Amino acid sequence: NKQVIFKNFVEGFPKETDMYVKTSSVSLKAEEGSNAVVVKNLYLSCDPYMRTRMTFNPDPSELSSFVPGYPVQGFGVAKVVDSGHPEFKKGDLLWGITGWEEYSLIRNSEGLFKINHTDVPLSYYTGILGMPGMTAWAGFFEVCAPKKGEYVYVSAASGAVGQLVGQFAKLMGCYVVGSAGSKEKVELLKNKLGFDDAFNYKEKKDLVSALKRCFPEGIDIYFENVGGKMVDAGLLNMRDRARIAVCGMVSQYNLSKPEGVQNLMHILHKRIRMEGFVVFDFFNQYSKFLETVLPSIREGKVVYVEDIAEGLENAPAALVGLFSGQNVGKQVVVVARE
Ligand code: NDP
Q: N or C: which end of the chain has fewer CB within 10 A?
C-alpha cells in the first residue's frame, strides 16, 4: 500500500519534502459490525485548508492536525473493497475524508457520501460535486443572498470554488468580475467561464483602483477567498448594504503574523454584512445541491476546469502548488481510475 506520509509540523510555506512516499505491507480489513470500510482510493483532492492541518493545533474543537508519521488526510473519491458497514457494500463508490494512500481503512464512515450518479466524471466529486462545489453553492446562494443585476467580485476566481461562484452568479443574472494570478487564468475566466471581466492581481500595484475600474458603481457581493490586502481594497469599493462572504484567506495561511485589515470602518458606514461560513454546516443539504448542480452540468450550463496530477508520488507537489497558484482550476490527484 503506497502512502504519502506527513513528515512533521510545518512553519511558513509548505514544501514537497514535508511529505514523503513509502510502502506499507499492513493488510486492511473491515470487521463485520464495525461500521468501518476499506476503500481503494481513486481521486484525491488538494485543498488550501489542508495547510491548517499541517500546523500543530492542540484545540480539539478545531480541525485536527495531521499526525507526523501517518498518511496525509483529505477529501477523495474511493471504491469500497471491504465493508463492515450496513450502508456500504463492496463495489460502491463514495466521496469523503480518506487517506493519501492506495487503500485506506476508514473507521468513521459518518462523513462519507455514496456516489449514485456516474454519468459525469468521477473526479468531479472532489470538486464541483464535492466539498468545493458545496462551498461555492452555499456561500453564494445562502450567505450572499444574491439578486439579479447585482455586481459580484470573486477573488481566487479560477480555482475550485471561485470558478463556480462566478458561473452561479452569471446564472443569477449578475455582473461578475474575477481576479486571479496569471494571464492564462484571466483568459480562462473571460473566455471559458463566462466572467464579464477579470484581472491579474499580481500585475496591479494599486488594487483599489483596479477594482474601481471594474466596478465604477461599486460592489454588491464580494466572495472572498484570498484575504490580506485584497480585503482592504474590496472594502473601499463596496456599495451600501453590500455583502462579503468570507470563504477563505489563502494569502494568510503561511504567514506567522497575518496582515492587518485597515479599512474595517467601511463595514459600519456602508452597513456591509461580512459573514464567515464553513461548508460543513451545509452538508445536510447535499442532495438538494446535487439536484440543482447535476442538471446544470448535464445541460452544459456550468463547466468545470480541473488540473489533474497523475500518481500519488506527485501529490505533495500538487498540494504545495496551491500556495503559489500552480493549479489552473481544481487540483486533483489521480491514484487509480477504477
Ligand atoms: P484554489 O483552487 O483557488 O487554489 C488556491 C488558489 O489560491 C491558487 O491557485 C492561487 O490562485 C490562490 N493563491 C494562493 N496564494 C495566494 C496569495 N498569496 N494571494 C492570492 N491568491 C493566492 O482553492 P479553492 O478554490 O479550493 O479554495 C479557495 C478558498 O476557499 C481558500 O481560501 C479556501 O481555504 C477556501 N475554502 C473555504 C471553505 C469554507 O468552508 N469556508 C471550504 C473550501 C475552501 P492565483 O493564481 O489566482 O493566485
A: C
Report how far ligand 1's centroid is from the alpha carbon of 261 (Å): 18
pTM over 0.80: yes
Q: Which residues does a 6 A CB cutoff place in the pocket of ligand 1?
A: 47-49, 132, 135, 156, 158-162, 180-182, 185, 225-226, 247-251, 277-279, 322-323, 325, 327, 330
Q: In angstroms, rounded to a whole number, what is the distance separating the alpha carbons of residues 17 and 152?
A: 39
Q: What is the pLDDT of residue 63?
A: 85
The whole-number pLDDT of residue 62 equals 78
Q: What residues pair up with 246 in beta bridges, in sequence order?
A: 224, 276
Beta strands (DSSP E) in the chain are 2-6, 19-23, 37-45, 73-83, 93-99, 103-106, 113-114, 151-154, 175-180, 197-200, 219-224, 238-246, 273-276, 306-310, 330-334
Is the predicted pLDDT of residue 247 greater than 80, yes or no? yes
Q: How many residues does the chain have?
A: 338
Instruction: Tally the C-alpha atoms within 13 A of residue 114's C-alpha that lie toward its C-beta.
Output: 10
